[in-house]
TrEMBL record:
SUPFAM superfamilies (alphabetical): ARM repeat
InterPro entries assigned to the protein according to its UniProt record, in alphabetical order: ARM-like (IPR011989), ARM-type_fold (IPR016024), CNOT9 (IPR007216)
GO cellular component terms listed in the entry, alphabetical order: CCR4-NOT complex
Name of the molecule in the record: Uncharacterized protein
Record family assignment: Belongs to the CNOT9 family.
Gene3D superfamilies: Leucine-rich Repeat Variant
GO biological process: mRNA catabolic process
Domain of life: Eukaryota
Entry-linked Pfam families: Rcd1
Amino acid sequence: MDLHYGNNREKVLMQLNKFITQPRSESMRINLGYHLSNSFDTEVIAAKPKFLDSTLTPRESSQVCNALSVFQCMASDPGARKWLVQEKIHKILYPFLKETTNVMTPRQPVRLSILILIDALTKFDELHGHEILHLFLQTQIFSSCLHCIHHGDMPIKKVATHILMKILMHEEGLRCCYSRPDCLRSVMEVLGQLVETFSYQIPSSQHLKDVIRCFLSLSRVGWIPRVYETVRNGVPQQLIDNTFRVIIHVDPQIQNMLYQLVLNLNLNPNNCSHED
């Protein structure tokens, strides 16, 4: 089936998207995704020039998102996740996340759909998870996530932060970050800037927890002097001075996490007190 050419491409994409996302046999959905993957690759790749030069229309944006949703369904299967990463689907997607501060409306749904797909692929605790993490760490995963956190709207920031958190919570991902001083500095700077935005754009409880988990993961390498000082000096004061007391009040787990961060880095907690 060739979706790139033909007058009914948009209609076919919508129908396939509806079909594959409906509750049905998991194997049927996965097999359909395998058979159509080349056509959907073509659909996404064809949109890249217009995306990058800001001429992508809302209709074309919708078509790309429909194609990406098929891959999202495939990512529910461990074997399909491994296959997608081995086929370097993420390398097809990275150009859509590259350096540009243009926030043209039709681009944002595409970026969000791509990040949701990458998030679905980064299930590192499940079957083939270690292999997938290893493959991701050989790509631009850190810089792509950091760019989206820095320049994206809030939905994009949330998903990108969640992906970064999942990488840093694994030993291999953490080691990849702290063994490259430029990467560690970038992670600390972007997370610090994100926390600053929380001062006037109140985050969800989950988003705040993802940020704190990133810092907690980095704080686990206190036995490395250079890394310890970088992390200790880079933790935003807002995290430990009771700035987010309203959120902490409704989610005590956050307070416990912050208390652990204070202990790990020997910080001055000011008004941050631990409640058992």
